[in-house]
Amino acid sequence: MSGPLAGKRAIVTGASKGLGRAICLSLLDAGMHVVGVARPSAELDSARAEFGPAFTAWPLDVTSDALIEAIEREQPFDLLVNNAGTNHPQPFVDVADETLDQLLALNVRAPFRVARSIARGMPSGGVIIHMTSQMGHVGSPNRTVYCMTKHAIEGLAKAMAVELAPAGIRVNCIAPTFVKTPMTERMLSDPSFAAFVDRMIPMSQLASPDQIAAAVIYLASPAAAMITGHSLVIDGGWTAQ
């Protein structure tokens, strides 16, 4: 396969389902060799079976030292998509320390450590993409910890972009609105919450995983060669209000 991304190597965290799975498929379609990282699961096994020889599954926890060691053994990568993350919506005053620690570990500490390891071996022309959220640009009820973690990664991306630019490495964020994935389906099954989301999106529709994956392809490609330190918000107008 020919094209600007063909033959290059990518690593995607949170690769087994939802956005991560769609991103892996799009990168494979663009001719990349893709390492998909996720905890061991039937979904990761099925991806390994379906995606073909250009896909390698790493059944590792993104918060683990084992992943960092694997990255250091397998360097270099041309693209990192830091996609793994989670959310546990709760009223601010009810957030337990365990919830706080879990979201900070998965949504902030893990992407920082993975990006740091990748950047050490990334060649000039490399790209790092952090998957954040529209909640990295605004606030929202019952999402204090999630908003905090996504704002943190937005700030991290800007600082990384400035520091890594002399090495020829670009760093950006993609900030989606709600996308229909296994993580959001249980939230959107609540009629009152689904109505809230509909009111907040002027386009009155959720994003699709394929739309987010298309943004990854764009930011990874030479077409985005002058874009760094940016957050591409794909939110149907949520943050325009």
**Number of helical stretches of at least 4 residues:** 8
Instruction: Record the strand order, biggest sheet.
Output: 3-2-1-4-5-6-7
CATH architecture: 3-Layer(aba) Sandwich
What's the CATH topology label? Rossmann fold
Helix percent band:
40-55%
Distance between the termini: 43 Å
Structural class designation = alpha/beta
Shape estimate: globular
The averaged pLDDT comes out at: 96
Task: Tally the beta strands.
Answer: 7
Cα Rg: 17 Å
**Oligomerization:** single chain
| Biggest pleated sheet | 7 strands, parallel
- Domain count, please report it: 1
Give the low-pLDDT segments.
Answer: none
Give the helices and strands as they follow along the chain: EHEHEHEHEHEHHHE
Strand content: 5-15%
CATH superfamily: NAD(P)-binding Rossmann-like Domain
Would you kindly provide a written description of the structure presented here, covering whatever features stand out?
With 241 residues, the chain is α/β, with parallel strands linked by helices. The protein has one domain (9-235): Rossmann fold (3-Layer(aba) Sandwich). The chain is 44% helix and 15% strand. Strands 3-2-1-4-5-6-7 form a seven-stranded parallel sheet, with helices on both faces. Helix 3 (65-74) runs parallel beside helix 4 and helix 4 (97-121) runs parallel beside helix 5. The longest helix is centred in the middle third of the chain and has 25 residues, at 97-121. It is globular. The termini are far apart. The model has no long low-confidence stretch (mean pLDDT 96).
